[in-house]
């Protein structure tokens, strides 16, 4: 059988893989591009928590192939089992050998399975990004009354919010840290999420670990580190994920300190013809250059655009040379966003900082229907006045306010620049121009710097 030749091969069919392939097509219109994925039907990662109640049908969260078809990118459903760097080829499970000029690794991450006894019992579910698997989880969920979620990060709280919206479900969440979302928010913001979930009836066990999953073949309860037990017909693991680097390691590619694949600013591995992007890649913090365990579709697609543009020549010069951990989440109508350093992480790193805070109504006048309070917290360098981080909580607009904060961090905006920010306002859309929360938070800190 003759080996098939391609100019660009992408391994992985998630957001990173798809965007790198379509970006490569835009910059290199004459190249022959192939994307290989090992799951026939994937899902949109950020939509996974909403496949169980919010969406009428899990299929509404399918990751489609339309962008590939539209951009004339070939698609193969198969699994790459070996990369042969000397021959510049990959071997697949189906026995194919494919030759490449440039290779992009977008292999994602695998759910973390903590060392808890009993995780192999029936009805214990790590979160895999595969349609058939998640449909199976939904089927089991229908018959489950008592659900225990392990992990109080984004995955855990979003699942808790979704499951507690289903009638007749008793939802418990166990988190090892003292408060929810501890890796991304300060305690005052995590406390707001706790209040929301408890109002919805979620039973929270914070500062506690799961010691064992109990039951015969099927889970019946979980035992906590303090000895108490919680009844459980189903356990969902929302602890996070680890980079999928097996293929890269076997090919002799270097890993960074955080166990993701090492890449330079242009997503090139130690092999100049192999790029790596997304969750399988190590990230470096924007301010400290330390390894950063961030796994976000938004970060992955930003990296994918850098890789896709720069496969053959460095066409897009990268000015943002670090990862700004920028998140948003939604819990029962409450929107939270975080970007850059939190107050706690900045202090832990030894930065000398000042904090600016402000609250304002999301509309003006505040008597307009649907108005909620928007709270902004900004972290500045005390000496230079440069913005280093920010958090926001409020209504839907908070999801975009955090993106403004993210851009301001990337461009190293000062408190003075934010204080004189020119913004568009409208009664139905924003806080009043006299009380725009980003401006007020910057003003709050200017006198202290």
Tell me what the structure shows.
The chain contains 11 helices and 26 strands. The protein is α/β, with parallel strands linked by helices and 449 residues long. It has 3 domains: 4-110 and 242-309, FAD/NAD(P)-binding domain (3-Layer(bba) Sandwich); 124-239, FAD/NAD(P)-binding domain; 333-446, FAD/NAD-linked reductase, C-terminal dimerisation domain (Enolase-like, domain 1), CATH 3.30.390. α1 runs parallel beside α7. The longest helix is centred in the first third of the chain and has 13 residues, at 15-27. It starts with a strand and ends with a helix.
The number of helical segments is 11
> Which fold does the CATH topology of the largest domain refer to?
FAD/NAD(P)-binding domain
Oligomer state of the chains in this structure: single chain
Instruction: Work out the helicity level.
Output: 10-25%
Note the overall shape. globular
Describe the largest sheet.
5 strands, parallel
CATH homologous superfamily annotation of the largest domain: FAD/NAD(P)-binding domain
CATH A-level architecture of the largest domain: 3-Layer(bba) Sandwich
Domain Pyridine nucleotide-disulphide oxidoreductase dimerisation: 334-430
Cofactor: FAD
InterPro entries: FAD-bd_OxRdtase, FAD/NAD-bd_sf, FAD/NAD-binding_dom, FAD/NAD-linked_Rdtase_dimer_sf, Pyr_nucl-diS_OxRdtase_dimer
Pfam family, one: Pyr_redox_2
């Amino acid at each position: 059988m003759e080996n098939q030749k391609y100019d660009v091969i992408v391994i992985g069919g998630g957001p990173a893989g798809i965007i790198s392939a379509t970006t490569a097509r835009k910059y290199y219109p004459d190249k022959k591009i192939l994307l290989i994925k090992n799951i026939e039907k994937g899902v949109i990662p950020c939509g996974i928590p909403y496949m169980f109640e919010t969406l009428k049908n899990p299929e509404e969260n399918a990751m489609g192939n339309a962008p590939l078809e539209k951009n004339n990118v070939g698609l193969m459903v198969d699994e790459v089992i070996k990369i042969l760097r000397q021959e510049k080829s990959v071997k697949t499970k189906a026995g194919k050998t494919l030759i490449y000029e440039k290779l992009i690794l977008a292999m994602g991450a695998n759910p973390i399975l903590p060392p808890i006894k009993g995780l192999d019992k029936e009805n214990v579910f790590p979160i895999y990004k595969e349609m058939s698997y998640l449909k199976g989880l939904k089927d089991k969920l229908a018959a489950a009354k008592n659900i225990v979620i392990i992990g109080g990060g984004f995955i855990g709280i979003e699942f808790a919010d979704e499951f507690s919206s289903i009638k007749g479900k008793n939802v418990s969440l166990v988190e090892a840290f003292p408060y929810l979302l501890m890796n991304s928010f300060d305690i005052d913001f995590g406390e707001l999420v706790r209040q929301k979930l408890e109002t919805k009836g979620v039973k929270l066990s914070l500062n506690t670990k799961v010691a064992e999953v109990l039951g015969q073949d099927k889970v019946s309860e979980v035992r906590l580190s303090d000895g108490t037990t919680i009844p459980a017909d189903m356990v969902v693991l929302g602890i996070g994920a680890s980079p999928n680097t097996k293929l890269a390691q076997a090919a002799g590619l270097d890993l960074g300190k955080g166990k993701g694949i090492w890449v330079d600013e242009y997503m090139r591995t130690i092999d100049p013809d192999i790029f790596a992007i997304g969750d399988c890649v190590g990230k470096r913090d924007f301010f400290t250059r330390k390894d950063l365990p961030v796994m976000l579709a938004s970060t992955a697609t930003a990296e994918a655009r850098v890789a896709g543009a720069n496969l053959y020549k460095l066409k897009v010069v990268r000015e943002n040379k670090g990862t700004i951990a920028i998140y948003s989440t939604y819990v029962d109508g409450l929107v939270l966003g975080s970007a850059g350093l939190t107050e706690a992480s900045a202090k832990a790193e030894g930065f000398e900082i000042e904090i600016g805070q402000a609250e304002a109504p999301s509309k003006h006048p505040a008597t307009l229907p649907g108005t909620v309070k928007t709270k902004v917290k900004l972290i500045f360098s005390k000496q230079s006045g440069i913005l280093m981080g920010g958090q926001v909580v409020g209504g839907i607009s908070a999801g975009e306010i955090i993106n403004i904060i993210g851009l301001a961090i990337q461009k190293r905006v000062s408190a003075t620049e934010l204080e004189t920010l020119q913004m568009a306002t409208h009664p139905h859309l924003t806080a009043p121009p006299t009380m725009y929360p980003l401006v007020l938070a910057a003003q709050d800190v200017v006198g202290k710097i």
